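wait is this the right file?? whatever heres the structure
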C-alpha cells in the first residue's frame, strides 16, 4: 500500500483491501494472433482457426490493431508505454484452452503504471495501476444440465484482451464499483472496448482480503467474472463478511478463486488460486519481442480525442458548471456531445446541464433507452430552453412542450428546420398550447391586487414575518393566472406591494 494512503471505513474492526484485474475485449475485427473473426453470437466453433488451435505448423502473427488499442489505453491513464515488451506462454490445463497454454505477457508488459482517477461521494479518489498487458482469451465451456453434457465453444479462443491490473488500493465495495465504472467509461470513450458486460467484453475479477489495521496484508480470494456493477458490490460485501466470520471463528483464509451466485447472494470456492510460479511462464518461441517506436506513440497521442477528465475540466472552466455536473455529463461521448450542442445553441449551459441530467436522464432510464435514442433532438431542447430563459414559458410549461416533442411525432416534425425556424415553431407551439407566460405587468398587478384583497389574513402574517404565508400568496397568484405568470415576477411584485 502506498505510504500515507488514507484508510477506508472499518468493517467490524477490519480493514478491507481490494485490487482488480479487468479483462477488456479489444474492438478488433480479427483475433490477436490470427485472422479469425471476433464477431459475437456465431454458431459454436465456426470462428476458430488453425492458429487458435495451435495446430502443428500454424504460427501466430501479432494483430497491429490490438497493439494500437493498448497504446491508446496507456496514454489515457498516463502510463508508460514500453518500447520493448515480450509475450510469454502461461501454462495450465483447462478443457476450453486448446493449446494447453495461453499467450500473455508476464515480466515486461506493454503498458506499465498509470492511474484511474474518479470521484466518490464528491471526494477525489485515485487507484494506481500496476500494468496492462495484451493476451488471448480462452474458449468457453457450455454446460447443458438438461441433457447432462458439457460442450466446448472455441469461438472466443484467441480473442484479443487487454488485462488491466491495479494495486490493492481500494478500501470498500463502493470505491471498487466507482473505479470499475470509471475504467468502463475510459475504455468505451476511447473506443478500445464496447464495454458489453453481458457478452463478456468487460469482465472484472476482484481480489479481496481483510486485515486488522496496521497488520500485513491478509490472504486474498479472487472473485471471478463479475459481469454487472450491482453484482460486483454484492459479491464483495458478502466476501468481506464471510472472511471476517472465518477469521473470528479461528479459521485461516485459504487463497482461492471463487464465483458469485446472484441467486443466493453468496460466493463459493471454485478452485485453489495459483501463483505465478504454477503457470511456468516462459517467452513464447513463436513470437518475437514487441517493439513500439516512439513516433507511433506520439502520433497516437496527437490523434486521440479529448479524454473525459479533460473535457470535464473544460466544462467547469468554459461553462461555469459545478464539478459534479461536469462529471455526470462526461459519462459518455454521446451525452457530452448532446449537452454541448444544447448549451451552444441556447447559450444557457446551466439550464442545459439541469435538463440533460434531470428530465432527459429520468425519461431515458424510465424507458430503458440510451442517449443516442433520445426522441428530442439537441436543437429542439435548446429551443425550449431558450424560451425558458427569455421568460416566454415557465419550467413547468416547458416540460409540457417537451412531453409533446418526446411522444408526438407530428409535433416533432413541426418543430424543425434551422434553429431560427425551430425557435419560431416552438413559439407558435407554446402559443397554441396556451402555455405562454403572462408578460403584461399591468394585468399581473391587477391579479395580485385581487389576491391581496382576498387574503387579508395572509397579508398580515407576511408583515409579521411569516415566510409560509408569502408562499401561500404566491400560490394563490399562480392559481389565479392558471400557472401562466412568472413565479419570480410574482414574488417581486408581491414584495413590492407588501413593502
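ok assuming it is, sequence goes like this
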Amino acid at each position: 500500500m502506498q505510504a500515507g494512503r488514507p484508510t477506508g471505513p472499518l468493517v467490524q474492526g477490519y480493514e478491507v483491501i481490494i485490487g482488480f484485474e479487468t479483462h477488456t475485449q479489444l474492438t478488433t475485427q480479427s483475433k490477436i494472433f490470427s485472422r479469425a473473426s471476433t464477431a459475437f453470437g456465431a454458431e459454436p466453433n465456426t470462428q476458430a482457426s488453425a492458429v487458435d488451435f495451435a495446430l502443428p505448423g500454424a504460427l501466430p502473427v501479432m494483430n497491429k490493431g490490438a497493439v494500437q488499442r493498448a497504446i491508446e489505453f496507456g496514454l489515457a491513464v498516463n502510463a508508460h508505454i514500453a518500447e520493448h515488451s515480450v509475450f510469454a506462454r502461461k501454462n495450465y490445463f483447462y478443457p476450453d484452452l486448446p493449446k494447453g497454454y495461453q499467450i500473455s505477457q508476464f515480466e515486461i508488459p506493454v503498458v506499465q503504471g498509470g492511474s484511474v482517477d474518479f470521484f466518490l461521494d464528491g471526494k477525489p479518489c485515485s487507484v494506481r495501476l500496476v500494468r496492462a498487458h495484451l493476451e488471448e482469451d480462452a474458449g468457453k465451456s457450455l454446460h447443458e444440465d438438461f441433457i447432462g453434457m458439457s460442450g466446448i465453444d472455441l469461438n472466443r479462443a484467441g480473442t484479443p484482451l487487454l488485462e488491466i491490473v491495479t494495486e490493492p488500493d481500494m478500501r470498500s465495495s463502493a470505491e471498487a464499483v466507482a473505479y470499475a465504472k470509471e475504467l468502463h467509461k475510459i475504455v468505451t470513450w476511447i473506443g478500445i472496448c464496447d464495454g458489453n458486460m453481458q457478452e463478456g467484453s468487460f469482465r472484472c475479477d476482484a481480489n479481496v482480503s481483510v486485515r486488522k489495521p496496521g497488520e500485513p496484508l491478509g490472504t486474498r480470494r479472487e472473485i471471478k467474472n463479475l459481469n454487472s456493477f450491482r453484482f460486483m458490490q454484492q459479491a464483495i460485501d458478502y466476501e468481506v463478511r464471510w472472511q471476517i466470520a472465518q477469521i473470528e471463528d479461528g479459521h485461516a483464509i485459504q487463497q482461492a478463486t471463487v464465483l458469485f451466485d446472484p441467486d443466493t447472494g453468496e460466493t463459493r470456492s471454485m478452485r485453489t488460486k495459483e501463483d505465478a510460479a504454477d503457470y511456468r511462464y516462459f517467452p513464447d518461441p513463436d513470437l518475437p519481442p514487441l517493439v513500439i517506436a516512439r513516433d507511433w506513440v506520439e502520433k497516437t497521442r496527437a490523434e486521440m480525442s479529448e479524454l473525459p477528465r479533460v473535457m470535464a475540466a473544460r466544462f467547469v472552466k468554459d461553462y461555469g458548471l459545478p464539478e459534479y455536473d461536469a462529471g455526470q455529463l462526461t459519462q459518455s461521448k454521446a451525452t457530452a456531445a448532446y449537452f454541448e450542442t444544447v448549451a451552444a445553441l441556447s447559450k444557457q449551459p446551466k439550464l442545459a446541464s439541469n435538463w440533460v441530467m434531470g428530465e432527459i436522464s429520468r425519461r431515458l432510464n424510465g424507458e430503458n433507452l440510451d442517449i443516442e435514442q433520445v426522441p428530442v433532438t439537441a436543437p429542439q431542447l435548446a429551443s425550449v430552453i431558450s424560451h425558458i430563459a427569455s421568460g416566454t414559458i415557465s419550467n413547468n410549461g416547458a416540460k409540457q412542450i417537451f412531453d409533446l416533442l418526446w411522444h408526438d411525432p407530428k409535433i416533432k416534425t413541426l418543430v424543425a428546420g434551422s434553429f431560427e425556424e425551430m425557435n419560431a415553431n416552438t413559439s407558435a407551439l407554446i402559443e397554441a398550447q396556451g402555455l405562454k407566460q403572462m408578460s403584461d405587468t399591468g394585468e399581473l398587478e391587477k391579479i395580485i391586487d385581487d389576491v391581496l384583497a382576498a387574503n387579508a389574513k395572509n397579508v398580515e402574517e407576511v408583515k409579521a414575518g411569516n415566510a409560509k404565508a408569502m408562499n401561500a400568496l404566491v400560490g394563490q397568484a399562480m392559481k389565479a393566472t392558471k400557472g401562466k405568470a412568472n413565479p419570480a415576477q410574482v414574488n417581486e411584485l408581491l414584495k413590492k406591494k407588501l413593502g
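Residues 306-432 form one domain. so i think its the right one actually
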